[in-house]
Amino acid sequence: MRHVTLPAGDYVYRVDQPSEAIYLVRSGKVELTTPYPETGEGVDQIHGPGHVFGEVEVIDGRQRTSNARVAVNAELMEIRRDELMDILYVHPEKSLILGKSAFERLRELFSEESLDSELARLRQEMELSIRGAVVAHESRVVRSHNGMAAIGVPIVLMVALAVGAYWFFHRV
Known about the structure:
Structural class: alpha+beta
Helix content: 40-55%
Strand content: 25-35%
Number of strands: 6
Shape: elongated
Low-confidence stretches: none
Distance between the termini: 84 Å
Order of helices and strands: EEEEEHEHHH
Mean pLDDT: 81
């Protein structure tokens, strides 16, 4: 485990980075955000002291699906994947450090015993798919606007030249 201190505005991790650790907030606040190309970042969750974040991607082995931005100067405990597996499987008595909320979320998402866990997993997948679709749509809109500017600027210049030429040749 490693103690990490970050000022407000810094990022713990960003979308698409490898998931190598989970984080326990000791003080301050961390926002999990989704970057949107046209409208900026949207805050999905806020984690304060005692909360754990980043665990689902580490367990799944996925890349990060959101940004983790420090909202208020924060002190975090970074728990690397190998340390997490050691805590969970070799020394489960030490797992209390991770907090109840993290384990309830993991149990909800990964328990094979109930329909509720399947629904929670489907909700998670649907949320990620919708977020990806919105980001992709905004990216297309931004590219479209840039393409429209590339077409519009020459047209405006040609109209201005035509008006200027008309005025120049038809003045009294």
